[in-house]
Amino acid sequence: MSRPDSAEWTAAKSLGDDGERLVCENFSRFGWEVTRTMGDAPYDVLLLGRVEVKTDRLAAKTGNVAVEVSRRGEASGIETSAAMWWAFVLCDEVVLIRTKVLREAVRSGQFREVAAGDGHVTRVQLVPVEALRRLSFHRIDRRAEGVAW
Predict the structure, then answer these.
(1) If I label 5, which of 12, 24, 63, 103 is the partner at 20 to 30 A Cα–Cα?
(2) In the chain, what are the domain boundaries?
(3) What is the dihedral of CA 8, 12, 15, 16, to 10 degrees?
């Protein structure tokens, strides 16, 4: 390893710093709170993000996930969520979607809206799993990790 004051070390450090800045800028664009460490830290970047997690075991049977839009006549669910991302845990996968993208899709009127929940006071839109996958930013195959239901 070169000395910290050598030209080789300085060039490598500069290249590494550029890479870290690039990663930070990209995660920031996706809404993550980014903290870059300095000095002798055990990692380079700390990411903080808000994720709403919905688990739907019936999706495999129904072919849909239920996305809440209102409760007792008041906006709720996707309409009021402060999360940056929604993660849908399905039978054998996790689908990650930007809240903004899911909210726009739900507002487009392309999905069927029904009453749901206790007393049917909640309105949900039934989003086909295939549509959810098309909207997704990232998917995790739970079968590859041996964690499917």
Answers:
(1) 24
(2) 7-48, 51-145
(3) -160
53-70 per-residue burial string, b: 16 or more CB within 10 A, e: under 16: ebebeebeeeebbbbbbb
CB 125 within 8 Å of CB 54: no
- Put the strands of the sheet holding 122-128 in their side by side order: 74-75, 64-71, 122-128, 112-116
Cα 27 from chain centroid (whole Å): 12
Q: Tell me how far apart the alpha carbons of residues 44 and 73 are, in angstroms, rounded to a whole number.
A: 46
Tokens read off for 82: 């402060």
Q: Do β-strands 64-71 and 74-75 pair in parallel, antiparallel, or remain unpaired?
A: antiparallel
Confirm whether pTM is higher than 0.85. Answer: no
* Between residues 134 and 92, the one the model is more confident about: 134
